[in-house]
Amino acid sequence: MPYEFLINNLPKTKKAIGTDKGLAKIGDGIINLSYSIAKSIYLTKKSNSNQIIRTGQKVSKKILANALKNANMKEFAKNRADAHDLANTVEALVAYVWLVNKISIEELISLITTHLSGNITRRFDEIENATSAFTKVLISIKPFLPTK
Amino acid sequence: MPYEFLINNLPKTKKAIGTDKGLAKIGDGIINLSYSIAKSIYLTKKSNSNQIIRTGQKVSKKILANALKNANMKEFAKNRADAHDLANTVEALVAYVWLVNKISIEELISLITTHLSGNITRRFDEIENATSAFTKVLISIKPFLPTK
């Protein structure tokens, strides 16, 4: 990304990246856009009647917080983080790998779509299945994150 | 985009594209992400103290609605559209050109950044300057939109 200068002043440590509020705001946009397209693709491909579904979806904080826990990546979050903090950490990590050009929006969409499964039209099932997909996304991007 | 199939069932007319609710939801994500990065770049480059600013920003409906009017592109919106409808139309048009691969997120960020000017740290000025930037974005993408 030509925007990598936007993180020049960030120490390349787990906590500095995982707790940066500006990164979280940027990541919020990346995640919501990617999930919107992934959900549209997934629902369209699964449709029995070949119906095309275009949708937008804000990913709930609960989904992201649980994904961070399931991926065993809570060390990127601040100490005594609540669900909101944990979700912000996921957003910050995604923004970081995007800004350092290790993942594109298209790749993120593809990752989420690949890892979505089951029914996502009922809210309860969607939370479970989307959490699982985001857990796998986090595990996929972990190699591009700082190790200390 | 490999997601162009998501608009296969859409008539390629001004009104069909400009009033599609699913496209508007997708475009909402594209616009908010692009504006977040553009605003971060703009504020960072303008900073006297070489401060790096990372921010996220939901673009207000008012900005988008006025941009559509200023670009003389109200014919893409539904009849008797209110500000909310006009903003949705801008979002749908941006999603359309992105899905048909005529503009990338990076190009959109570059367009917005180029056309931002003046002070955008005060809310009042930001609305005026962002409206002007989005007006120019709309004029730039118009050649890729249906003509009838």
Short description:
2 copies of one chain form a homodimer. With 148 residues, chain A is an all-alpha fold.
Describe the protein in words:
The structure is a homodimer of 148-residue chains. The first copy, chain A, is mainly α and 148 residues long. Chain A has a single domain (13-142), classed as Ribonuclease iii, N-terminal Endonuclease Domain, Chain A, CATH 1.10.1520. Helix content of chain A is 59%, strand content 0%. Chain A contains 6 helices and no strands. Chain A has helices at 14-18, 21-46, 61-70, 83-99, 105-115, 123-141. In chain A, helix 2 packs across helix 4 and helix 2 (21-46) crosses helix 5. The longest helix of chain A has 26 residues, at 21-46. The radius of gyration of chain A is 15 Å and the shape is globular. The two termini of chain A are 24 Å apart. The interface between A and B is medium-sized, with 34 and 34 residues.
Write the layout of secondary structure elements.
Two copies of one chain form a homodimer.
Chain A: H1 14-18, H2 21-46, H3 61-70, H4 83-99, H5 105-115, H6 123-141
Helix pairs in contact in A: 2-4, 2-5, 3-4, 3-6, 5-6
